[in-house]
Amino acid sequence: MAEHKHPNYMAIFYYLAILTAIELAVIFLPIPKVIIAVLLCVFAVWKAALVAMYFMHLKLETRTLGLIAVTPLVIATLLVFVLLPDGLAVAKKTSDEKKLAAPAAAKH
Amino acid sequence: MTAATAHGAAVVEPAESPLTPESWGKLGMWIFLAGDAVGFGTLLAGYGAMRATSADWPNPYEVLGINLTAIMTFLLICSSVTMVKALEWLSRDDRNRAKMFLLLTAIGGAIFVSLQAYEWTHLIHRGLHINGNPWGASLFGTSFFLVTGFHGLHVTAGVIYLLATIGVVSRRPRAMDSYNFVEITGLYWHFVDLVWIMVFTFMYLL
After folding, report:
1. CB within 8 Å: B52 and A87
2. In chain B, what residues touch A3 (CB-CB under 8 Å)?
3. Residue A49's closest chain B neighbor by CA?
4. b/e per residue, B174-183, with b = 16+ CB within 10 A?
5. DSSP secondary-structure letter at A87?
6. Taking the CB of residue A27, how many other CB atoms lie within 10 A of it?
7. What CATH class does B23-205 carry?
8. Quick one: residue B124, left, alpha or beta (phi over 0 = left, psi -120 to 50 = alpha)?
9. pLDDT for B85-143, tens place per residue?
């Protein structure tokens, strides 16, 4: 059988460990929560990409296999936006009900 | 043309997988993982939408605590490294070392599930239930147990899969005979690690 190429796994391990440490540090930074959230998302996708590219050898595979692997990420991202209107409607209904209930409670 | 076809006998040439020429199994695993990723993606997207529209969502890292989970994350990354090391030793024709690293990976997974069981017990005692909790939105507990439970189930299945893989490596006489099998097992195991990276970020840190 042909020689199998192996990336430098330990380098990837240190890379992942350092990124995890940075992630843990980021949540305690005195910066706006939105920026923390964006940073955490970037680090998560970065780490996931490292695992997929090097541990799962996606870097050595064909482009089409990479597309198969990326599809779920696209679907899941779209799904957040599909679900948002539903959730926002529930949130609005809850706050409307509270507004209606407040004057009624005041009368008693 | 082979000698058999020259004599008129029907010969079915084994068709090669177009995306993964070394084995069909690898393509099969990738397609399964893409489907499984949609499952996890759906759960996390649902979690995100519920949380974004909730007024009283508790702050996860304050309620759940991240010290133990950070150790669990590190443990899973380590087990991914032992998994690739197993594959590396197989390609160097050392079955015994490969089996040892597969066993280490399985042990890492077993410790992960044990720590998760400990974490769940601890949180349940503190009042985090699937249908409510003392800190705010009841869906917080629902989504927490659903997502981490679904992932824990994958780790448990992975440990069984790894132990079965050790059996396969033992039965096949040459190291290279089980290379593809171990690589496919590795794909599953790294996927479980990859999903945990996402779960850890979205459910604990954010």
Report:
1. yes
2. 91
3. B194
4. ebeebbbbbb
5. H
6. 16
7. mainly alpha
8. alpha
9. 999 999 999 999 999 999 999 999 999 999 999 999 999 999 999 998 999 889 999 99
